[in-house]
């Protein structure tokens, strides 16, 4: 599994927003949303804050055989085979990134991006982003 993300630091976002991209398709997955919410909630609790707001763009690349597209007729909501491990890995990875960084950061874990923004947006919209970190696989 490969992950790319843009995450906000604590106390920078109002509301909770997760954009989940699985294999280049924007989808929903309630369990991944819960994993991200859990990671942020744990960090906010550790600094005694009630906000718990965040913005996360999470791009996950998985073997297509591990994706269950039959969760909803529109195919917008997907599930994963071997989901428990995937959710726990995403939770641990997001939690680690939040704890390590104190500002918005671009966490590009796919070596192919080589520091480039992993999707099409205006560079002026992504102020305060740092270059990509070395490639990371989370299993």
Q: Can you characterise this structure?
A:
It is built from 2 helices and 7 strands; from the N terminus they run E-E-E-H-E-E-E-H-E. It has 139 residues and is α+β, with helices and mostly antiparallel strands. A hairpin with a 3-residue loop joins strand 2 and strand 3. About 24% of the residues have low confidence.
Outline the fold blueprint:
Blueprint lengths: L1 E6 L8 E7 L3 E2 L2 H17 L7 E8 L5 E2 L10 E2 L2 H18 L4 E4 L31
Parallel strand pairs: 2-4
Antiparallel strand pairs: 1-4, 1-7, 2-3, 5-6
Helix pairs in contact: 1-2
In CATH terms, what is the architecture?
2-Layer Sandwich
Q: Name the CATH class.
A: Alpha Beta
DSSP summary: helix tally: 2
Strand content: 15-25%
Arrangement of strands in the largest sheet: 3-2-4-1-7
Q: What is the N-to-C order of secondary-structure elements (H for helix, E for strand)?
A: EEEHEEEHE
- Net shape: elongated
CATH fold assignment: Ribosomal Protein S5, domain 2
* Average of pLDDT: 75
Rg over C-alpha atoms, rounded to the nearest angstrom? 15 Å
Notable features of this structure?
two-stranded antiparallel sheet, 2 helices, 25% helix, 139 residues, Ribosomal Protein S5, domain 2, single chain, alpha+beta, five-stranded mixed β-sheet, elongated
Gist of the model:
The chain has helices at 30-46, 83-100, and strands at 2-7, 16-22, 26-27, 54-61, 67-68, 79-80, 105-108.
